[in-house]
Amino acid sequence: MEPQPADDTCLVQETLAGNQASFQLLVERYQSRLFALVRHYTRNPVEVEDVVQETFLKAYHRLDSFQHQSSFYTWIYRIAVNTVLDFQKKRGRSPVQSVEDPELLPNSSQPSGSRIVSPDARMEREEIAKITHEVLESMPEIFRTVLVMREFEDMAYQDIADVLGISIGTVESRLFRARARFKEKLLQRHPEFGEQ
Amino acid sequence: MNDHHDMNCQEARERIPSYLDGELSETAAAPLRRHLMDCQPCRASAQSDKNLKRWFVEPKAMAVPRDFSARVARRAFAGDTGERFSPPSLVPAGAGAAPSLVAVADARTKAPASRSDERHLRFVLLLTAAAALVLLMLSLSIRSLAVPGGTELKADSRHTMTADEALQHLDQLNGPAANTTPAHGSTPASGAEGTTSGTPAKTPAAPGKKP
Predict the structure, then answer these.
(1) Is B55 on the interface with A (CB under 8 A)?
(2) Which residue has the higher pLDDT, A43 or B44?
(3) Is residue B31 part of a domain?
(4) Distance from CA of B124 to the nearest CA of A (A)
(5) A13 touches chain B (CB under 8 A)
(6) Co-location of B134 and B194 in the same domain
(7) Chain A environment of B72 (Cβ under 8 Å)
(8) Shortest Cα–Cα distance, A173 to chain B (Å)
(9) Hey, is the C-beta of B120 within 8 angstroms of any chain A C-beta?
(10) What is the pLDDT of residue B85?
(11) Quick check: B75 and A57 CB within 8 A?
(12) What total number of domains does chain B contain?
């Protein structure tokens, strides 16, 4: 019978007791997911690695503040999101710095009659991913973050709310606007994907 | 706007995204489903939202470096706080954040950085500053020794000396051996030497004195 892998709580406690191997196990457990997450913000592999590494190092030094109220992943995910946003801000790359408050957009930018089609079946996966990444990059961070969490990370509204520290209602309305904006940007760049 | 059963089109369209995300309770989902059965425009809207979801495909997974977890764990236990993107500072920002020049420079090189490295850097910087101060003081004191003081080298006192007097003075300085030398052309060099490296105390008195 194979030994059961230690749960996150055990690994956290062992790490706090000074066990380096336990922390290494935690890193191994979540490194792939964090690499995938950060990749939605930067395509530079060196930067991805730097951000994920920084996330784990910060997590280690704040481990004693982890209250076990949320899952370890939710907790470290929050650190990762803050780290990547901070990183972008310092690199002057954040498109969030727009003068408008994306939450207060007029009704005209809410979902309109414009509809989009599915990606062409002949399109390569990487090609679709590239277009999507470009559209996301052009969006305010506040929208991009919820879309990444929901569409790529498949996170429940409650988890998104926990990570971002907002209510479920805000998650819902932010997603609604984010999708509308995504459609709009996609059609601006690629009108051919609009419904005829 | 159509009103099918107990939900109108606006309400339906607002709920479609949550429905597709699986976030609606059965109580909320049932009337929406009934509405969609009867309302073609809302069905088209739901289809468009489904199409949108198909754009979110994960790019090819990025390979995690083989030794990543071991390296991160090692660095964490060595005291690296991971404050990589903070602006470089030589002043400690407090106990919670220990950013450093070492850490920032280290982001590219991947060399291990720790608090002991930071202390070492500060010590070296302090030592360099102290050495620079000592060198400055030394050079100032050497300069003050090298500059002649007093009036012995005043140019106008030399003007009072005639050429003959100067030659006699040189002969006197060179001693008896020099007196036997008939040519004066060879003496200036030694005379000059005598003026600069000899006994300066005697020099001012010489022009006025006769041998």
Answers:
(1) yes
(2) B44
(3) yes
(4) 27
(5) no
(6) no
(7) 24, 27, 53, 56-57
(8) 9
(9) no
(10) 53
(11) yes
(12) 3
Same-domain pairing of B174 and B136: no
> What tokens appear for B100 in the block?
């450093």
ipTM: 0.79
For residue A150, the model assigns a pLDDT of 94
CATH class of A8-90: mainly alpha
Separation in Å, CA B179 to CA A14, A74, A81, B170, B176: 99, 104, 96, 10, 5
A72, pLDDT greater than 80: yes
Q: Report the residue of chain A nearest B80, measured CA to CA.
A: A57
Q: Do B13 and A111 touch (CB under 8 A)?
A: yes
Q: Quick check: B59 and A126 CB within 8 A?
A: yes
Is residue B61 a part of any domain in this protein? no
The second-level CATH assignment, the architecture, of A102-193 is Orthogonal Bundle (1.10)
Residues B80 and B142 in one domain: yes
pLDDT, tens digit, for every residue of A89-110? 887 765 444 434 455 554 444 4
Q: How confident is the model at residue A3 (pLDDT cuts 50, 70, 90)?
A: low
Of the partner residues A86, A119, A156, the one whose CB lies closest to the CB of residue B85:
A86
Residue B70 to residue A147, Cβ atoms within 8 A: no
Q: In this complex, is the C-beta atom of A39 within 8 Å of any C-beta atom belonging to chain B?
A: yes
Q: Is B112 left (phi over 0), alpha (psi -120 to 50) or beta?
A: beta
CB pairs under 8 A between A and B: 131
Among the partner-chain residues B45, B57, B82, the one whose CB lies closest to the CB of A128 is B57
User: Domain check: are B94 and B140 in the same one?
Assistant: yes
Per-residue pLDDT at B111 exceeds 50:
no
Residues spanned by CATH 1.10.10.10 within chain A? 102-193
Tell me, yes or no, whether B110 lies in a domain: yes
Domain that holds residue B188: 155-208
Give span(s): CATH 1.10.1740.10, chain A. Answer: 8-90
For the segment B67-80, the average pLDDT, to the nearest whole number, is 93
Do B135 and B99 reside in the same domain of the chain? yes
Record the tokens describing residue B107, joined without a space.
């982001």
pLDDT score of A2: 56
CB contact under 8 A, B51 and A55: no
